[in-house]
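Q: Sequence in, structure out?
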Amino acid sequence: MLTGKNFSPQQLSALTALLLSIPIALGIYIFKPVWWIALSSFIVILAGSYGLILYTLQNFIYRKIKLVYKLIYQTKASKREEFYYKHLLPQKSIDEVRQDVEEWAQQKKNEIEMLERNEAFRKEFLQNLSHELKTPIFAIQGYVDTLLGGALYNEEVNTRFLQNASQNIGRLVNLVDDLDEISKLESGAFKLQKSNFIIQELMKEAYESLSLKAGEKNIRFMIKKGCEAPLTVYADPSKIRQVLTNLLDNAIKYGRSPGIIEASFYKVDGQRVLVEIRDNGYGIAEEHLPRLFERFYRTDNARSRKAGGSGLGLSICKHIIEAHQQKMHVRSTPEVGSSFGFTLAEREPG
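A: Exactly. Output:
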């Protein structure tokens, strides 16, 4: 149904010409009641006024609209765009043009909001990076200055200070390595070496590598009952081992003592396998969950830094899973525990 809002220029011109022609033709017929003269006048006036009105609309109003579209696209018009401006744009109603402009304005608004968010994240990232770098650097500087100031010859402290300096150097090396890895992951500068492997076996390897650390906190590793049946996935085993190790390491750091860490594995839709790692630790407050995979984001700065780590582990995990074209998620309840999960493709046939 046509309304005044969605008339095209041709329709608007025809309606206006019709409204002009009918009373004029009726006036001519009243003064000279000859039907063919009135009909001829009606046709001539209708055709002439239609052409004049359409010309005016297209050359004055739609010329301005054409400039608006060129401003929207902000480029020199290609031949295809010139054809659009000349032949297709005049077919549009004013309401359709308004919708196009509103959509463009909304798109620009969204882009500006995204840039503002990215700028805020960039500033926060630089602040966090500065803090992460300064902490070990200042510690190393303090130990070295103390040793140079005479403690080097004090056998009671020199070895301990050198060990502490070495630990902080190791922390710096790990931070730089993590930054290098996450930059490669984000830029796609590495290639996944995918193969078929049984995910439960890889989980057991990760359990074994962290068994001593878990034993120190009296934390038991488990595979959920009913999830023991081997499931073959198609992924990069070294990268997935890194994900598993990182998630388990976090679960140990922030878990209860004694506690449990339980892994489960499920077929999802005939194409993917869901891997979940659950702990009964202290959990994470809901307001932190949306930002948990951001670089350097910490739910508790003091406790997280005391526990060690670069603050990039979860971000690296997320990028590795996304590089596999899969998703990662987290669920957590304070004082109950957390569950980190991700999907992987099922085995590649052949």
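Residues 138 and 168 are 9 Å apart (CA to CA).
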